[in-house]
Every structure is written in C-alpha cells, then in structure tokens.
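Supplementary Text 2. Reproducibility record for the structural model of the 240-residue chain.

All settings were left at their defaults, and a single model was retained for analysis rather than an ensemble. We include the record here because the model underlies the residue-level annotations in Supplementary Table 4.
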Amino acid sequence: AANIGMMDSAYFVGRNELLAWVNSVLQLNLSRVEEAASGAVHCQLIDSVHPGVVPMHKVNFDAKTEYEMIQNYKVLQEVFNKLNINKHIEVNKLVKGRPLDNLEFMQWIKRYCDSVSSSPNYNPVERRETSKGGVGAGKKVGYKPSSSRPCSAATAVRNSGGKSARPGAGSGIMVPGSAQIKALNEQVADLRLSVDSLEKERDFYFAKLRDIEILCQSSDVEGPEIIPAIQKILYATDEN
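Retained model, structure tokens:
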C-alpha cells in the first residue's frame, strides 16, 4: 500500500467519506480533514490496525505548534519504519494545515488501513487515555461554518410588517441596469472560458503522469533507457 500510484482509487475518495471514516473508527468529531494536521489522528489510525505498535503515550492530541506536531510525525515515521512501511511523510507540508496536502495524506492512510485487517475489539477512547489531550479529543467540536446568512426577501418582508420594499430613495436597494447585467454576463462568459482552459490543461498533465506511471510499471523499458522515454512523454505536445 506504500506505493500507490496517482491514478489509484485511493486519491478519488472525497472529504466527506474520509471524515465519516475517521470519526467512525476513532470516535472523533472532525469537520475538516486539515484538523488532523497535528499527526495525532494519523498515529491512532495506524494504531487501530496495528494495536499496541504505536506508543500512544507519546502522541499529543493537544499539539498546536509546529514543533509539537513534528514530534507526532516522528512517532508515526518510527512506526512506519518498524512496520517496514516504505512511506516518506511530507511533514513540512502537513503541519502547515494545507487542505490538499492533508487530504492526500489522509487518502493514503485510509488506503493503507483498508489493506490491513482491523482489530474488531479496538477501543479508540481507551487507547487515547494515555495520550496528552486524548481524553477530551472525542468531545471537541470541529469547525462549523457561520450560521449567519444574508436576509432573504421573504424575511425582509416579514420584518417590515408585510410591506415589500420598493426601489427608490431610502430603500437602500440598488437595481442593476442593463449595462451592469451585460457586464456581469461577459464576466461569467470569461470565467467559463478560463475554467475550460484550466480543465484542459489539468487533463493534459494528468495524462502525462498516467503515461509515466504505466511506463514505470512496464518491463519493456528499463535502466538508462527509461530516462529518454520519460523525457519524450514530458516534452510531447498535443500535436505529437
């Protein structure tokens, strides 16, 4: 499971599915993948499939600073080495809390855990008791988006005693003119073109990665010959 290609189904698992899985396995209440950036959650996920291998007393669920988080990842890397898991952890990226980096690592963790038989009698709450901040980890409420939202037209009418506001002096409502609507439509059209262009560029480079992955897995090209073969794929254009 350590060598998972870019096209592996593991990297197509969505955030909601990952969060539901983590919260179910560890009895936590995460609402964002990057809330696991401290490394403590990753340590316990590995502990759930290898009970007793992870020294949970060294894991810090209250880690806030990068230094504290790095200590958690040191524990995790040591466990990887002990289990002969050939996986390098990009600690410097993960501790920054970047959503994409944390998403990809969590996807990898799930893929690995799915490939190993989990312990049916694993008690995540009990295992966290020896960890710093582990006792209250499951009670922490994750990030929730603000419940405030713009006042709807219906609400505005109710608050005004049933009288709907009309455009004009004192109403505070600006009705866009035809020129503004035209300008907005042009902006939407430009944005759609930009999105189409970006999607084509994404597919173009993703196809290159896929071709290189297939090449590396093939036994037809080996040794020094593989370098020019990879360069040919990298420098190829749409016309080629």
